[in-house]
Amino acid sequence: MSLTSSLYSGISGLSATGDSMQIIGDNLSNTNTTGFKSAGYSFEDLLSQSISTQSGTSQIGRGTALSDISTDWSQGSFSTTGNSTDLAISGDGFFIVRDGSNESTFYTRAGEFSFDDDGNLVNSTGYVVQGWEVNQDSEAVGAVGDITLDSFTSPPQESTEATLIVNLNSDA
Q1: pLDDT digits over 74-129, tens only?
Q2: Is 146 exposed, middle or buried (0-12, 13-18, 19+ CB in 10 A)?
Q3: How far apart are CA 110 and CA 37, in angstroms?
Q4: 154 pLDDT higher than 60
Q5: What is the dihedral angle through the alpha carbons of 100, 92, 84, 108, rounded to the nearest 10 degrees?
Q6: CB within 8 Å of 94: residues ≥ 6 apart
Q7: What is the pLDDT of residues 6-20, one digit of tens each?
Q8: Chain center to CA of 26
């Protein structure tokens, strides 16, 4: 192996390690980011050389590279936020959001939502959350559209039954 080959092997290793450190840094810096999915990585040989020895042939690596960056799609943990419009997805799936300025559609796992001044359910960047209208039987109807509320109060309904759970004093 020549000096140039040795230097190339070292430089390719340093470069691949630098790339892996960027992935690790990204994972660490986004630990508390809502809906973030961490990434993993693997390395591969760029070049290899077979050498004949007394015991047979051996293969020596002559450089390495980052071969694959893969997203970990496993289920994350749920946390309570106290905000009634924050949602989470259990299992597979994404929320659909729409950019109102250019009608582009995006998909996200981040369920940090709120209502804007027009009654649209929006994410933190202002993209409108999409969904299906639901009828009285809880069945989806029509095409996917903006989730908008015209009123934030429900019409009152007469109560027909009440359940009370109490703890009675045994000395009474």
Answers
A1: 777 788 888 889 998 888 889 999 998 888 999 998 889 999 988 999 998 999 99
A2: middle
A3: 10
A4: yes
A5: -30
A6: 107, 108, 109
A7: 777 778 888 888 889
A8: 13
Q: Does the CA dihedral 109-111-116-121 come out positive or negative?
A: positive
- Any long-range contacts for 105-114 (C-beta under 8 Å, 24+ apart)? 105/130, 108/35, 109/35, 109/37, 110/33, 110/34, 110/35, 110/36, 111/34, 111/35, 111/86, 111/87, 112/34, 112/35, 112/81, 112/83, 112/86, 113/85, 113/86, 113/87, 114/83, 114/85
